[in-house]
Amino acid sequence: xxxxxxxxxxxxxxxxxxxxxxxxxxxxxxxxxxxxxxxxxxxxxxxxxxxxxxxxxxxxxxxxxxxxxxxxxxxxxxxxxxxxxxxxxxxxxxxxxxxxxxxxxxxxxxxxxxxxxxxxxxxxxxxxxxxxxxxx
Length: 136
Description:
mainly alpha
């Protein structure tokens, strides 16, 4: 690697671009600390992101992969804890719908059935029933 010296025809900002930087390992969204209370919109967005990030773990859990099962269970637990604090009924039902979808990807029928009973909005219940007829 060549040494770059400021003042020899290269501006200082260009010199800093050539310095290799340590890359941080991307953190798992389900492990991120929640700072302060989340509003309903932020909570719903966080649940959506957790469920999307945990989809691969849920599929691994369905294949009886122990490590992926643990990751799925941790993600589902965090998502459920966040969903309990959503005050708006429709937003909470939509968030629970996403968690039910995650549970079904993991073949966790027991948890999905319990969560399904917590959905009050009729149109969301109908959508979940259509998507997952084994829940009824």
